[in-house]
Design brief:
The chain is an alpha/beta fold. Helices cover 43% and strands 24% of the residues. Strand 3 (79-85), helix 4 (99-116) and strand 4 (120-126) form a beta-alpha-beta unit.
Length: 290
């Protein structure tokens, strides 16, 4: 367990890195990828050739005896919700960092991008139930509180229930928001129905963080493996090509099901390995939404 000084040091390091990324790399990309809630009335002006007649303000037109139209502008302010999986399977990493550490960095980068656009940001921490809710607010102090909580959060449950988390967002958040669902999506229970309903009300984006050992086994002989969420343990003979192939094929099947879930729900998604550069992956995600 991290002590207070360790947490503050990690928070500072993450702030320096992710704030720099959101300022220098994601500037403009975030703004164009995630639009405001809609169009708000701004002013009226005289009708010009080519204006849509449906925008004519008939009250003003009657008063001045010549046509005036309403001018609208985009409401830029968004509410951004981070839906962060804190189940036990995220506490794994065979490379330089655990999955939950990368999730924290990605969440922080999105958060700093959001506040630069004057957006509110909130967080739902979930396992197989809602572990913690941080209401949407603005400001650097709020972002640092979110990062500190991400770093030092200890879930009550080890398991995952994405369907319940998504359903909770649909019910809890009354006004339309942009929601980032961050998880390794390590669960068997389907959640396509709940995601479809949520994405009709909100703008949901899914970000999968995985470790390369989630997808393939090393050839190191007899190995004991444990399911972090259920506690089930077993031995695998990783020297067997058949065993390694079956393991990889199971991963591919799960990924195919996941992609199908996102496609049927109309949700944009990206998968990021802990060994990869998540910056490049996020930029690709932002660009495909423009």
């Amino acid at each position: 367990m991290l002590n207070t000084n360790d947490i503050l040091s990690k928070v500072r390091k993450i702030e320096i890195k992710t704030r720099g990324l959101s300022t220098n790399i994601f500037a403009g990309q975030y703004h164009s990828a995630f639009k405001g809630r809609g169009m708000a009335f701004s002013e009226v002006r005289e009708y010009q050739f080519g204006d849509d007649v449906r925008d004519i303000d008939w009250n003003v037109t009657a008063r001045f005896h010549k046509p005036f139209v309403k001018v609208f502008e985009e409401e830029r302010e968004l509410t951004v919700m981070l839906m962060v999986d804190v189940s036990a399977s995220l506490a794994f990493g065979s490379d330089c960092q655990e999955k939950r550490e990368m999730v924290t960095e990605i969440a922080a980068t999105i958060a700093f991008s959001a506040i630069q656009n004057n957006d509110k940001i909130g967080v739902i921490f979930f396992s197989d139930h809602i572990e913690k809710f941080i209401p949407p607010k603005k400001g650097r102090k709020h972002i640092l509180y979110i990062i500190r909580t991400l770093l030092d959060f200890h879930a009550e449950s080890t398991r995952t229930d994405i369907a319940q988390a998504v359903e909770t967002l649909t019910r809890m958040q009354k006004r339309r928001c942009t929601a980032f669902l961050l998880s390794d999506f390590y669960q068997q229970k389907p959640f396509v129905k709940e995601l479809q309903i949520c994405n009709r009300k909100h703008d949901v984006v899914a970000i999968q963080v995985y470790d390369r050992r989630d997808s393939e086994l090393p050839d190191i002989g007899l190995m004991r493996v444990a399911d972090a969420e259920t506690g089930h343990e077993q031995y695998l003979d990783t020297s067997s090509r058949r065993v390694r192939t079956a393991y990889h094929e199971r991963w591919q099947s799960r990924q195919d099901d996941l992609r199908d879930t996102f496609a049927r729900s109309g949700v944009d998604s990206v998968s990021v390995s802990t060994a990869d550069d998540y910056v490049r992956q996020l930029l690709m995600l932002f660009k495909q939404r423009r």
